[in-house]
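ok here's Motility protein:
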Amino acid sequence: MDSYGIAGAVTAMAQERTMYAVSITMLKKTLDMQGDTALTLIAGVTQAPVAQNLPAHLGNNIDVTA
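and the structure:
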């Protein structure tokens, strides 16, 4: 292998290493953004209001026939 071939191989390996590092960094940023979005969604959920003074039989059965 001549010196140009070795230099080309070293350059290719360096480029692969750089692309790998960029990919990992982008993956981490994406995961951070998804985590922030999930926290925002969870914080936005409000508790359902509790129905007061309803008969005890309401809400126990579901009609599944169409």
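+1. Residues 5 and 38 are 49 Å apart (CA to CA).
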